[in-house]
Amino acid sequence: MATNLKASIRATMMGSIPTSVGASGHLFIYSGSAPSKTASPTGTSAITAGIALSATMGTTGTDGTDANAKLTLSGVPLSGTATASITPGYYRVTDGGTDDGTHTQIQGSCGVGSGDINFASTISSGGTVTISSLTWTEGDV
Amino acid sequence: MDSEISLGSLKCVGAASCIGGKHPDPPLDAFPLLAWMVSHPRHGSKVFTEDGAASVEAIALDVAAMPSYEALAARHGTTAEHVRQAIEYALAAGFLG
Q1: Complex ipTM, two decimals?
Q2: pLDDT tens-place string over residues B56-75
Q3: Interchain CB contact of B4 with A (< 8 Å)
Q4: Which of A20, A44, B65, B86 is such that its CA lies 20 to 30 A from the CA of A99?
């Protein structure tokens, strides 16, 4: 049987993410398979310094069932200049500009035509990487 | 009876793109375990395994002396699959063959 949560609990969970990320969040994109979320990143970073996120990180809204159960990344589209040519494999959202495993707030998959963040193509060094949309939805409806 | 609940089923949906930029020739689209950057701290402007362990050139140079994916992987500190893609890239680029 699926687990179902009260709407306010779902909203609290999603609302806690921007709070935890803080005002200096960054998004990093790496090649290869994701390591443990607490480990230093593996693979090659598409943008060495990552992409700086909006100070509010994200805003919550309805997922169609409950209010504020869906978090949408603020400031999209967000862009950065690629420092390497890679096939995106996973991403991390960190609570600052350092990604050493101790600042990981969210980790998920990337891919070309697949993954949580679905890229239209591989990443080329010097190209403009753009995150056009990104949402997270609490799954225990 | 003990009961268990499973939480944390966060669903993530995102879209992204990369426009422009430089890429090596042949491109890396078919080689997800390889990477390239203008100035890699260890390998310079070469195509290398995405884990940063070795350049395609270094692996290609060792192929004749060590014709085994596993042995080459152990020598360069990467995986056999990274080595396989490096050799295929070397063939496609004309370094080998």
Answers
A1: 0.93
A2: 999 999 998 998 999 999 99
A3: no
A4: B86
